[in-house]
Amino acid sequence: MTAQQTADELRAFIAAEFLDGEDASELTDDYDIAASGVIDSLGLVRLVSHIATTYQVPMDGIDIKPENFRTIAAITELIGRHSGSVVA
After folding, report:
1. What percent of the chain has pLDDT above 90?
2. DSSP one-letter code for 72
3. Which SS3 state, helix, strand or coil, does residue 19 take?
4. Of the chain's two ends, which shows fewer C-beta atoms within 10 Å, N or C?
5. pTM (2 d.p.)
6. CB neighbours of 87 closer than 8 A, spacing ≥ 6?
7. By three-state DSSP, how is residue 85 classified?
8. 3 state DSSP class of 87
9. Which of 54, 40, 43, 44 is nearest to 83 (CA)?
10. What whole-number distance in Å separates Cα of residue 67 and Cα of residue 63?
11. What is the pLDDT of residues 28-63, one digit of tens each?
């Protein structure tokens, strides 16, 4: 899976799970999903679970720092660092 495919899958997941039918057109790779309130602390737990399940990233391998989950691009980079399934 390429980094762009990963970003697209994450975008679709976030839109479906957290935007509840709202317009997802502003959900670009660099859109700050934390500061905008798209994902709260409970949402972060759901997102981490999705990453662990979908990308086979061990839960203890996921560094839960705000900068790793601020944007889709940052999340994609995190997955790339911990999963052999994402290529640039």
Report:
1. 67
2. H
3. coil
4. C
5. 0.87
6. 1, 2, 3, 80
7. coil
8. strand
9. 54
10. 10
11. 999 999 999 999 989 999 999 999 999 988 888 678
